[in-house]
Amino acid sequence: SRQDFIRNFSIIAHIDHGKSTLADRMIEMTGMLTQREMQSQVLDSMELEKERGITIKLKAVRLIYKAEDGNEYTFNLIDTPGHVDFNYEVSRSLAACEGAIVVVDASQGVEAQTLANVYLALDQDLELLPVLNKIDLPSARVDEVKQEIEDIIGLDTEGAPLISAKKGIGIDAVFEKIVEVIPPPRGDESKPLKALIFDSYYDAYKGVICYVRIEDGQVKPGDEIHMVNTQKTFEVVEVGVVTSAHMPLDKLRAGDVGYITASIKNVRDATVGDTITGAKIRTESPFAGYKKAMPMVYCGIYPGEGEEYTEVRDALEKLQVNDAALDFEAETSVALGFGFRCGFLGLLHMEIIQERLEREFDLNIVTTSPSVIYRVTTNAGQVLEIQNPSNLPNPSEIAKIEEPIVRAEIMTPTDYVGAIMDLCQNRRGTFIDMTYLEETRALIKYDLPLNEVIYDFFDALKSKTRGYASYDYELIGYRESDLVKLDILINSNVVDAFSIIVHESTAYAKGRRICEKLTDVIPRHQFAVPIQAAVAGKIIARETIRALRKDVLSKCYGGDITRKRKLLEKQKEGKKRMRMVGEVEVPQEAFLAVLKYD
Ligand code: GDP
Ligand code: MG
To answer: Where does this protein hold GTP (predicted)?
Structure first.
């Protein structure tokens, strides 16, 4: 049948093992793009992604391959994001495939993300095709890494393609293996439409573009479609596939991967994981596993000095049209005025949004410390979800506080096991178990508070293991903990934007650190400025910024007038980046100083 000549697959890999390079090479070798059309990495199209070397949004591309058996095959290559923040999207794109290529760097071997992604693929019952990449490197250890793949992942590596994606070596073998190993789709064209949305994004001209895998049935322009989970109905405007650009077709059929547009105005109406079916004749078995994007990390975003609240709101609204996981609502801070509490999938997602606000919208913003969601039970038995530390009730009203816990799986050479256990112990981790994958490599499992991993756990792990350890985590639930709100007072006023929730045992050390940092970044004033840290109204640390003695201008006593003016101009420039907190000028970098308190 028609579907016998279709192969739908993804490439999964640990970061930097060569997923994008292999995808590019496959696109290039099937002649879908001319060399000139092909920018360095087609699948990582956002500028930001390129700079950070990560793939945030997944896309699909159709390739035509003439196989050795003489037949022409349609390959639908579905790209997956490479960061735990986006694991749900990864799982949905894998659900759109029958198989996955597992790329392993032949010099690095199997890493935590290789394994995490393999698990996600096995959850979707995918056929896995191991590929060893970077065999051109002198440090490639082909036989050892093959053995690792067999021992750790349990995949047969006999006949696994040995390739160099960069140099274009062995790519044909990959194509042939795809034909041989990955099963064709087996949908039923005569059944009602059943399509999985595995990615969607907003396009200014066409509205939301849904990337879909058609499981059963067919879809064509003019059809009325229904979103099973969001319950919205739309009329299809265009369907097609992505080659070097969007290429419209008259219809998409069972087994196909392509796109649908239907004048949809917001990605929230076409979210990843939802099932598209016919408006009149609906499928009886929508895809399982739909999840609404759940923010895990929150922070305040406020207009910087000279910036308007409405401009920030407009920018957030624009970003949200294209990002179903971005959550925001208005909030007010005593220190910062009107702004927004924003929710993100994780810290990377948060940083991306901050950067986009600054770069694409040219906004000057102030960001408060990120916070996870705490669950507070009051003495009255009420359960509150706290995303903003300032909203934590008085300690006397709190029966218990619970915090989100993640299970982390850390893969490391055995030399670093001790260092990693120290690190996890310091981050309030609970040891779960450790297994030796090989003589020289261990997999360590710890349960850790999300709060302790979101800031800089990854950096700490890398520096303690010289970059050799890799890790991955997933949220497993909530656990009661001795948490307190740490307040910072400037000139005796609590600055709400500085408040953070910390474990009782670390409050003193963190309070001191923040006071010291603020003393460094807040300029001297005409009067002495006390900086204090407090828990439940009790001062636990204190620093003082000494008063300024002389007027700045007195330095230029007798100097010429232009020099004085320059100095005044300079002061004014400096002021722009300040926030007034009571009588005290606080530079924006102070908010960053609190954020990076380690
Ligand atoms: P991804 O994070 O898995 O998408 O990895 P990339 O495709 O971005 O590759 C990461 C780095 O490895 C880049 O600098 C590539 O140029 C390099 N790379 C990819 N494939 C090969 C290869 O076969 N040989 C060598 N030497 N380098 C490669
Ligand atoms: Mg990549």
So the answer is: 16-21, 133-136
Model confidence at 34, pLDDT cuts 50, 70, 90, reads very low
- Which residues are documented as binding site? 16-21, 133-136
Q: Is the pLDDT of residue 41 over 50?
A: no
Distance of CA 471 from the midpoint of ligand 2 (Å): 18
For 270, how many CA atoms within 13 A lie in the half-sphere containing its CB? Answer: 33
pLDDT score of 40: 44
Confidence of residue 171 (pLDDT cuts 50, 70, 90): very high
Residue with CA closest to ligand 1 atom 16: 166
546-558 pLDDT, tens digit each: 987 655 555 545 5
Tell me which of 16, 22, 139 to substitute to probe ligand 1's pocket, judged by most ligand atoms within 8 Å of the beta carbon. 16
> 108 in ligand 1 pocket by Cβ < 6 Å?
no
CA–CA separation, 298 and 451 (whole Å):
11
Say which residue the tokens 């300040």 belong to: 578
If one residue of 103, 166, 167, 169 were mutated to test the ligand 1 pocket, choosing by the most ligand atoms within 8 A of its CB, it would be 166
Higher pLDDT pick, 91 / 555: 91
Which numbered ligand comes closest to the C-alpha of 16?
1
E strands in 165-264: 194-203, 207-216, 218-219, 224-227, 233-235, 238-242, 246-249, 252-253, 257-261
